[in-house]
Design a protein that fits this description.
With about 350 residues, the chain is α/β, with parallel strands linked by helices. The strands form 5 sheets. The chain has a 6-stranded antiparallel beta sheet with strand order 10-11-12-17-14-15, with helices on one face. Strands 1-2-3-6-7 form a 5-stranded parallel beta sheet. A two-stranded antiparallel sheet has the order 4-5. A hairpin with a 2-residue loop joins strand 4 and strand 5. It is globular, with a radius of gyration of 22 Å. Helix 3 runs parallel beside helix 4, helix 3 crosses helix 6 and helix 4 packs across helix 5.
């Protein structure tokens, strides 16, 4: 995958839009001559569509005059843009702004959908994050080390998929803008997936995603919010307690989250998960549950429990490394399947995420 420049609709780019389109055409031509199989795309706009920039770029790639060949159009194998949330700090706590990130996505999806020729072109959210600056730290960024970041991530990805489905675009994936910040102590407050080599809870959400395979299946939740509601109002009243599920040949995976924009204590959710029409024969299946909460998959909470020591001893570092791994809250256990149905009940703390893996032969 090759792209040209970064956020050309803001001050990173000092030329005109025509100058950028010219740069794109020449760069794509050079890359394709060197590597004919290269996938080329862009334009990595800031703020979703970047006002009119994304639309004008797509118009150039589709019907504009190529600055290199003089022919109509430019190669475009994928379309990319950035989508960011907007957390704030008020009343002594962080309040996330997922609605802003979803709005960036939805606005860009709408522009892409207005070009039927690009209906099947892969869309990649080149930077998909709760806010815009991984290297910046401040009170509004206090969500990063703990389960606020992991639950936000679990809840936001399925909403992105929902919006893409509604707009009829081909969302292929998303990336985080995060780094490894060298020579910094653990839990220094930067937005990253691991801190000083110690995995943070957010990384375990991606490990959960990696355990899911097959086709998405329908999920209904009496306590869930849809993408349109979150886009409009955020998650400011009742929490968003919902799930993403996928069915493979001999496996069903269900990711369940308990998310709220406000990082304040709240009651546990009593989850009653009913699975229907399972293609498993009557009899037995194996259930494994993974968990990210204060006591599971959470190196930051483990560090706080031992008094937040700095620097860490070798023993403390090893202990936190272990605490940062994705572990099983329920080890594989046999459960009954009757008429294709299974019922599982469990409690899920606020800002916690759980993955249930049901397997059968």
């Amino acid at each position: 995958y090759w792209e040209v420049w970064n956020e050309p609709n803001i001050s990173y780019w000092h030329g005109s839009r025509a100058d950028y389109f010219k740069l794109y055409d020449y760069a794509v031509d050079g890359v394709r001559r060197a590597l004919p199989t290269a996938r080329v795309g862009g334009p990595e706009t800031a703020g979703g569509p970047g006002r009119k920039f994304l639309g004008e770029f797509l118009e150039h790639c589709l019907r504009g005059t190529n600055y290199v060949t003089g022919k109509t159009g430019s190669p475009l194998d994928f379309i990319s843009f950035h989508a960011k949330g907007s957390p704030t700090f008020a009343n002594d706590h962080v309040r996330m702004g997922m609605s802003s990130q979803l709005r960036n996505m939805n606005d860009a999806f709408a522009v892409i959908a207005s070009f039927p020729e690009y209906k099947n072109t892969p869309v990649v959210i080149g930077e998909s994050d709760p806010e815009g600056c991984a290297a910046c730290t401040g009170s509004q960024d206090g969500y990063r080390n703990g389960t606020m970041y992991s639950s936000y991530t679990a809840a936001s990805f399925p909403r992105a998929m929902e919006l893409a489905d509604e707009q009829g675009v081909n969302l292929q994936g998303a990336l985080t803008w995060a780094f490894e910040f060298e020579d910094q102590p653990p839990f220094a407050g930067f937005r990253q997936l691991a801190s000083d080599g110690i995995d943070l809870p957010v990384l375990n959400v991606f490990r959960m995603f990696a355990k899911m395979s097959g086709e998405r299946v329908a999920v209904q939740s009496s306590a869930g919010l849809d993408a349109g509601t979150i886009l409009k109002s955020g998650v400011r009243g009742s929490p968003d307690i919902s799930a993403l599920a996928a069915l493979d040949t001999n496996q069903l995976t269900v990711l369940v989250w308990h998310y709220h924009d406000d990082d304040v204590p709240g009651p546990d959710a009593d989850v009653d998960l009913s699975l229907e029409n399972l293609p498993a024969a009557n009899g037995g299946a194996t259930l494994t549950q993974y968990l990210i909460d204060a006591d599971h998959g959470n190196s930051y909470a483990a560090w706080l429990k031992i008094g937040s020591p700095l620097p860490l001893s070798d023993e403390q570092y090893a202990e936190l490394e272990k605490a940062g791994q994705l572990g099983e809250a329920i080890h594989p256990e046999k459960i009954s399947v009757e008429s294709g149905r299974v019922s599982v009940k469990f409690k899920l703390a606020r800002q916690a995420v759980s993955l249930l893996v049901l397997e059968w032969k």
